[in-house]
């Protein structure tokens, strides 16, 4: 059975938080997202789905979970730097994420409150 685990950890000496969201299938990690939330900014630092579990909607699910944390913390946007042209294709599929130059993507949350 696939489950999602969210860990939110305070950053030392700042008002920020680390957010780690992990997707687990029985005892196997299928995908991990690590993000940072600081000063109304949410940054996706890492997203990695294990090959066997790719293209099953897990990456999107973790991005959605991170977005819901970012909204709870009143962030204005989520941003990230895509690591390569292959991952650009994934980010181009994520709803309302726009490419601001070659590898930077941003989703403005204040304009698209759900
Ligand atoms: C990029 C990555 C995280 C995507 O994870 P995933 O769990 O396979 O993504 P999903 O299954 O949720 O895909 C969501 C959508 O993106 C599309 N997509 C995902 N990877 C794609 C690719 N390489 N090429 C084209 N489309 C892709 C899926 O087809 C799906 O499209 P749909 O909405 O039309 O169904 C995964 O391929 C990965 O870990 N790659 C290696 C590490 C990496 O590049 N990380 C990104 C760092 S910024």
Q: How would you summarize this macromolecular structure in one to three sentences?
A:
By secondary structure, the chain is α+β, with helices and mostly antiparallel strands. It has a single domain (2-108), classed as Aminopeptidase (3-Layer(aba) Sandwich). The protein has helices at residues 58-72, 85-93, and strands at residues 2-10, 17-25, 28-38, 41-49, 77-81, 98-99, 104-108.
Bound chemical compounds? coenzyme A
What is the terminal separation in angstroms? 29 Å
- Gross CATH architecture: 3-Layer(aba) Sandwich
> CATH fold name, please?
Aminopeptidase
Number of strands: 7
CATH superfamily: Gcn5-related N-acetyltransferase (GNAT)
Strand content: 35-45%
Helicity level: 10-25%
Strand order of the largest sheet: 1-2-3-4-5-7-6
Biggest sheet character: 7 strands, mixed
Radius of gyration (CA) equals 14 Å
Structural class: alpha+beta
**What is the name of the CATH class?**
Alpha Beta
Overview of this protein structure:
With 114 residues, this protein is an alpha+beta fold. The chain contains two helices and seven strands. It has one domain: Aminopeptidase (3-Layer(aba) Sandwich). A seven-stranded mixed β-sheet has the order 1-2-3-4-5-7-6, with helices on one face. It starts with a strand and ends in a 6-residue tail after the last strand. The structure holds coenzyme A (COA).
């Amino acid at each position: 059975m696939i489950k999602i685990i969210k860990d939110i950890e305070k950053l030392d000496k700042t008002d920020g938080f680390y957010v780690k969201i992990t997707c687990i299938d029985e005892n196997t990690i299928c995908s991990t997202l690590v993000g940072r939330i600081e000063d109304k900014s949410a940054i996706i630092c890492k997203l990695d789905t294990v090959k066997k579990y790719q293209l099953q909607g897990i990456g999107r699910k973790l991005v959605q979970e991170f977005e819901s944390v970012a909204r709870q913390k009143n962030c204005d946007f989520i941003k990230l730097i895509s690591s390569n042209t292959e991952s650009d294709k994934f980010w181009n599929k994520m709803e309302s994420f726009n490419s601001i130059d070659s590898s930077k993507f941003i989703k403005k949350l204040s304009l698209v409150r759900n």
